[in-house]
């Protein structure tokens, strides 16, 4: 669409599931607004996921406003094409007032005026209030040591990885074992590729335990309703790496130890490159043990819940390691190992440099309470643990968006009836 005006009561920056959820609730309240999307609506689900990608949470948790999962497999895990079809339906249902292919270059207070100036690649707009719904994963992390790798070694970030055939023949080094790293390592391993995996301290969890998906148990335990203010780590939980598990082929655990039994080479944290040799910390055993402690700890909390409620469930037992490293290896020769490609799976950094407002901490992260900042009229939506575990996911963003819509309405952004009639006539 082409904007019919340059001023809106609310401008939403970002057209993913968060921005569209915000648009849904603003439309319900008769609040005029504009969604500005840098690429296309829900773009990241099409462009930043590999071919075999699937959800790691069951389909029943897909619960965007007015658009819940309605398929016949609520306990299954949608694959990439199914997710995008579902999201396309959400876009059609919301029909947001949006402009695509427009980059927001700066958001700032318009002098002493009680409004914001939003400078974009398509010109400037003003708004009474602004919702930053662009997510928190903006800049792919690739360490400087990548520059030292030989020129003939192909390098990708996880956001660029699509499938094993994309990589040249030879062994693959996957760096990082969070959700993306563990699943990409599995994808390559299942395709018969020789994989070297540089691990970190990512946690893991079971897919199924005592007769149900672990997600189902945690939902019954009200874990997904726990606000960040009540979490034992408080805001520190936002720094946690996501647990690795998969929904692939109906869902299963990801056990790096089992991969090692099958020929995957595991190493500790990668720290550098010395000539032709990669360097690692001697902490592989520590990383594996840490992941298993989290795994068993979650299951133990489920055991406690089952016992406290007298629930009839199949018995469970702690995970026992199926493999142990016989020694810590701290060096790996690139040529000797036959590594021809590297996939960096060490995450993303937020980049809110375009938001000119005194609402950030020393790490460039917005300081907020449930998305409401100290700058009147400026809000954030869709960030991990913005309010609950589901805040950055399909399961919780609707609750957050509705909360912010109420905050916006209370701040006086509702369009007066006369102005609404004028806009309707102009349309």
Automatic annotation (TrEMBL):
Listed SUPFAM superfamilies: FAD/NAD(P)-binding domain
Keyword terms of this UniProt record: Oxidoreductase
Keyword presence, Phosphoprotein: no
Pfam family name, one: Pyr_redox_3
Keyword Lipid metabolism: no
Domain of life from the UniProt record: Bacteria
Residue runs in coiled coils: none
Listed transmembrane segments: none
NCBIfam families: MSMEG_0569_nitr
Protein name (database record): MSMEG_0569 family flavin-dependent oxidoreductase
Lineage: Bacteria, Pseudomonadati, Pseudomonadota, Betaproteobacteria, Burkholderiales
């Amino acid at each position: 669409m082409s904007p019919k005006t340059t001023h809106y009561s609310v401008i939403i920056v970002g057209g993913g599931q968060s921005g569209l959820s915000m648009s849904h609730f603003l439309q319900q309240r008769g609040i005029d607004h504009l969604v500005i999307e840098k690429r296309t609506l829900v773009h990241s689900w099409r462009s930043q996921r590999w071919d075999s990608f699937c959800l790691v949470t069951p389909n029943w948790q897909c619960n965007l406003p007015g658009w819940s999962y309605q398929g016949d497999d609520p306990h299954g895990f949608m694959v990439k094409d199914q997710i995008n079809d579902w999201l396309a339906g959400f876009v059609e249902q919301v029909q947001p007032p949006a402009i695509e292919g427009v980059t927001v270059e700066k958001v700032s207070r318009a002098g002493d005026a009680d409004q914001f100036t939003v400078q974009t690649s398509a010109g400037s707009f003003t708004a009474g209030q602004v919702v930053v719904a662009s997510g928190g994963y903006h800049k792919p992390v690739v360490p400087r040591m990548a520059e030292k790798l030989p020129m003939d070694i192909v390098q990708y970030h996880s956001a660029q990885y699509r499938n094993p055939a994309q990589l040249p023949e030879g062994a693959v080094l996957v760096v990082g074992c969070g959700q993306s790293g563990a699943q990409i390592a599995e994808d390559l391993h299942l395709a018969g590729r020789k994989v070297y995996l540089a691990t970190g301290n990512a946690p893991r969890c079971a897919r199924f335990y005592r007769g149900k998906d672990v997600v189902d148990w945690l939902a019954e335990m009200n874990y997904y309703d726990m606000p960040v203010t009540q979490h034992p780590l408080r805001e520190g939980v936002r720094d946690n790496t996501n647990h690795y598990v998969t929904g692939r082929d109906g869902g299963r655990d990801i056990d790096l130890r089992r991969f090692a039994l099958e020929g995957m080479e595991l190493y500790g944290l990668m720290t550098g490159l010395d000539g032709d040799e990669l360097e690692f910390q001697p902490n592989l055993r520590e990383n594996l043990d840490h992941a298993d402690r989290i795994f068993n700890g979650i299951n133990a909390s489920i055991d406690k819940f089952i016992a406290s409620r007298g629930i009839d469930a199949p018995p469970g037992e702690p995970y026992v390691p199926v493999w142990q490293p016989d020694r810590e290896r701290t060096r790996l020769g690139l040529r000797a190992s036959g590594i021809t490609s590297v996939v960096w799976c060490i995450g993303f950094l937020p980049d809110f440099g375009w938001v000119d407002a005194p609402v950030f901490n020393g790490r460039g992260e917005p300081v907020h309470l449930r998305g409401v900042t100290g700058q009147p009229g400026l809000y954030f939506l869709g960030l991990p643990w913005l309010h609950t575990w589901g805040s950055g996911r399909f399961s919780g963003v609707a609750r957050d968006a509705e909360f912010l819509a109420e905050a916006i309405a209370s701040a006086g952004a509702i369009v007066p009836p006369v102005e609404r009639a004028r806009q309707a006539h102009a349309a």
